[in-house]
Amino acid sequence: MMMNDATLRKIDLNLLLAFSVLMQERNVSRAADRLLLGQPGLSAALRRLRETLDDELFVRVGRGLQPTPRALSIAPAIEDALSGIERAIRPQADFDPASWQGEFRIGMCDNLESAFFGPLVARLLQLSPGARLIGIASEKRDAARRLDEGVFDFSVSVHDEPASWHIRAPLFNQASICIYDEAQLKLKAPLSLEDFANVAHVTVSFEGNASTSIDTALSRTGHVRRVVATVPRFSALPTALRAMPAISVVPESIGRCMAQLHGLTICAPPLSLPADPVTMLYRRVDQADGRARWFRRLFLDVADEALVASGCRVSISRAAA
């Protein structure tokens, strides 16, 4: 539906800000506090926006608000507009990493941390001697919330669909590889499907779930694997594999690191497994911030070099820059 000029003139910046904060908070009281506006004032702004756009925009569900399909569809454009205004009026200063003193904070799950954290901090200290890098354990289920709380500058993980005030940039599709101790498990690569299905498996799950997409893929071939142990972190996996004849399927980036550090054997799985899309999640308002942009680009460069150096078959997508 095309809006006429009279309709557009009714939508001022305050209404757009109210809409944006309500999308983030999903609660009138919290949104009003953030806007330094009383609840009656925010309710009045929301009523004007509903009348102008001829849509409820938000419906009450329990104690919170649920955006309507119309609200979800217009949210990205409104966030882009507000971010553009902020970039236009914010004083822009060139970021000088060599003279900067302070922290950079990054959220990563432990498999990506093993692959990228060491090279990242080494490069950071070369370019910004006064900086400190803080790594934050991050899972995709809480990455968006912790990003909004300012816990880290950005998150690198397999993220869910982002909110309208976040940007999710593609990094690479992470394939899986098999890893085991050849001294314990007397198998030579390439593995047959029967060997893969019949040996003991160790899985990695923060929540203790033994069943994964691997079991789904195996079931399509008529096979079932035997999971003998589940560990909560990838860091526990090498010692487990060195202690018993078992195999594990892990992301390629950390699998290659483990193989180099612990003398383990890696090989391709004998069946097709889905690749996980690893992405970078950051706030839309930080898109043009000089310091944040420099840190994101530094990570892209370091991660790309680390993937190549480890022998991974993927590289960082330049779309993330």
Automatic annotation (TrEMBL):
This is Transcriptional regulator, LysR family. It comes from Rhizobium leguminosarum bv. trifolii (strain WSM2304). It comes from the Bacteria. PROSITE patterns: HTH_LYSR (PS50931). PANTHER family: HTH-TYPE TRANSCRIPTIONAL REGULATOR LEUO-RELATED, TRANSCRIPTIONAL REGULATORY PROTEIN. The keyword Transcription regulation applies. InterPro entries: LysR-type_TF, LysR_HTH_N, LysR_subst-bd, WH-like_DNA-bd_sf, WH_DNA-bd_sf. GO terms for molecular function: DNA binding. Keywords: Activator, DNA-binding, Nodulation, Transcription, Transcription regulation. Belongs to the LysR transcriptional regulatory family. Residues 11-68 form the HTH lysR-type domain.
